[in-house]
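Researcher: Next entry in the queue.
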Amino acid sequence: MTSWEFAADHPELSEPEAERLIRAHGHDPEEVRQDLAEKFTVTAELFAWLGY
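Model: Structure for this entry, 52 residues:
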């Protein structure tokens, strides 16, 4: 499964899921939250921010 297939199947993450994914990639969730604002838990937006 690719990241985009995952995003299509799971269009939105919970805040704890998003934070866990962000930390797993070595980033600070607050930094990402500031950049993405209300799109913080939107899977496709988060993956794009992470560089997928």
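Model: The chain has a mean pLDDT of 95.
Researcher: Noted, moving on.
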